[in-house]
Amino acid sequence: MYSRLLRIVLAGLLGFSTPLLAAGNDALQRDLSRIAPGLNQQALRHALAAMQCAVNNGAGPARRLAVIDYSRPSTERRLWIFDLQRKRLVLRDFVAHGRQSGENFAQSFSNRLNSNQTSLGLFRTAESYSGKHGYSLRMDGLEPGLNDLARERAIVIHGADYVSPNLVRSQGRIGRSLGCPAVRPEVARMVVDQLKGGQFLFAWHNDPRWLQGSDYLNCKPQRVAQVISKLGGVQRWHAGISQR
């Protein structure tokens, strides 16, 4: 009780009270809808509800929220990044889905290792690093059975040459990843810098299995609190490793 009250007080001091308080979610949705009129309203509502559920049950507040609408084709700019504090749209751009999830449309989703499919749901971003795809960002999935193997699967944000609208003319879609939400190389560094360090990313689709099975859309406090508590230790451990 004390920790939750403390988070709400700190949120108010830092200017995060609107996204953190359930009573403010409708107002925040209206504000974000005005600056991102092309974003599916159900996707935005679900993103805010999932984030609210996480914060209410132990997650720290975030400054930014990324929403991916995977019900849209890859030929559309279906990634939105919001600055929650300033209620500002930082970026709307292209993002890839997994090669086994579908062609132009993502239709199949998985949490399995080596599935090469996209995972849906709420993620918490973690540490940035330089790897085979250059400057990249690790994430942790918060939804057991749906995306919680993201780190083990190496599902990260990175730049990729195949995320190019120029490919649409030749193949009818942008390129696909092994499950990562890859972005254009031109915006990759900015995306990683905007989202690193504990922001939220929400991957949405009107997939009935996920909509019914998500602990965040159906906000199950005990299950969510357990995941958040465990994740806090995992992220602190990885942060310690990266600083050695």
Q: Could you describe the 3D structure shown?
A:
The chain contains eight helices and seven strands. The longest helix has 22 residues, at 221-242. It has helices spanning 2-14, 17-20, 25-35, 41-56, 168-171, 185-195, 208-213, 221-242; strands at residues 64-69, 79-83, 88-93, 121-131, 134-141, 156-157, 200-204. The chain is globular. α3 crosses α4. It has a seven-stranded mixed beta sheet. It has 244 residues and is α+β, with helices and mostly antiparallel strands. Keywords: Signal. This is Murein L,D-transpeptidase catalytic domain family protein. Residues 1-22 form the signal peptide. Pfam families: YkuD_2 (PF13645).
What structural keywords apply?
244 residues, alpha+beta, seven-stranded mixed β-sheet, 8 helices, globular, signal, YkuD_2, Murein L,D-transpeptidase catalytic domain family protein
Summarize the SSE layout with pairings:
Blueprint: H1 2-14, H2 17-20, H3 25-35, H4 41-56, E1 64-69, E2 79-83, E3 88-93, E4 121-131, E5 134-141, E6 156-157, H5 168-171, H6 185-195, E7 200-204, H7 208-213, H8 221-242
Parallel strand pairs: 1-7
Antiparallel strand pairs: 1-2, 2-3, 4-5, 4-7, 5-6
Helix pairs in contact: 3-4
Signal peptide: 1-22
Keywords: Signal
Pfam families: YkuD_2 (PF13645)
